[in-house]
Amino acid sequence: MLCYKSAFSQYVFLLEKPADEKADLSFKRPEPSLVFFGEDDGSPGFKKHNQNAMKINAYFGSAFSDFTIFNINTGKLVEYHNTSGWFFFYKPHIKKAYGMILSNGKEEPLIISDPDLYLKIVTDYLNIGNTDPKVGKASDTENNVNAREEMAQIMKSTFVPDQNYAKRLIKNVNIAQYKKDYKREEEFQCSCRERQTTMFRDSLLMDRLPESAQNVYDNQHQLLENKNFKNEEVASSHKYTRNKDGLIEKIQNDLGNSSSLTQFLYEKDRFYTVNIENAEAISFETFYLNDQMQCIRRLSKKSDGTVIWDIYYIYDQFGRLIRESQTDCESFYQYDNNQDDAYSSFKFYTLEPKMLKFSAKMSWDGNKQTIVGLNGFSEQTYRSVSIREKNCKIKTYQYDGDNKLTSVSVTSCKN
User: Fold this and answer.
1) pTM of the complete model beyond 0.70
2) How far apart are CA 128 and CA 298, in angstroms?
3) Which residues contact 22 (CB under 8 A, 6 or more apart)?
4) Would you state the pLDDT for residue 164?
5) What is the domain partition of the chain in residue ranges?
6) N or C end: fewer C-beta atoms under 10 angstroms in the chain?
7) What's the pLDDT at 145?
8) What 8-state DSSP symbol labels residue 184?
9) Which pLDDT value is given to residue 193?
10) CB neighbours of 183 closer than 8 A, spacing ≥ 6?
11) One fold for both 3-126 and 195-205+317-415?
């Protein structure tokens, strides 16, 4: 997982506009944007927040005319019409005194409350660099040529993985595209190939939310297609093409008004994904594998050679992920015993200086799974309770930091 994504996007945006409230800012088009909020309370933290906000304005200057930067100060409502849905930042709904809201115009925006991370996350998440010639640029001509040559060589791969390669990779690689089947979930294994998820505001399942989803699987329980809906209209979709052994060959991604193709290419000790938009390769990732076919490094680059992220993964003697590291953050996973393959606790730290920013605890009680998210001060930020039934139905209840129910999702076989 990406460190900043898992640490900062935790159910803080509303899906409907608060009644009788007027938006201080409204992004009617799905576009990248940056918003600073909060008022001067005289604290050292706000002083750093204000200083780093000014640095970001100076860093990007006026060169990015399509990248808007705002400061709403004491304002409390910002609405986003992104390609995956509408999201509303409502200051009274959160406990953060100040921070930065970052949106790529597609998914749910992020809220970043650590000023030291502002610039790093903006450049990484939006995949954009500095325009000031006084600051060294990573995307020079040599890197541009080398990256494009590397992608060209990747696309020429002639390696043909066999059935054993596919079986071991699917089971052990431990990335999002190849979902791991945990032992605790085996007894709730679902046989139906089409499943649907419906969202509600209340526990009685009477007040339905506009978001829903549908997934299609093959006979080996591997995902073939995912569709996300807003008011029963398709907001985004991902269609998987797999070979006869289950390895992904490509993913067709349709996100509102944009579409892209992710091509998978395999080698003996690694595999690649190349992202293609308008028939042009714009970025690629390399997943390095150990002899157990586990991913031990994930290196992502743009076509100009700029590194997007570089993540290292460490496993224990039982083949379980225990640590993932980047240059500015790291995460640790712990397990209750040597038999469990699903982690029981997770901690995320920023580095230099090292500070705990977010943690989560996961527990099981029969068919009930509970996940509690905590901030760096051990205060609850959210709670999720999932109940699995043997008829392929899963009910998940989401609560905020005050244990107030925010939503209920119901996943079941499609009728």
Assistant:
1) no
2) 20
3) 77
4) 97
5) 3-126, 138-181+221-315, 195-205+317-415
6) C
7) 62
8) G
9) 93
10) 339, 340, 341, 342
11) no
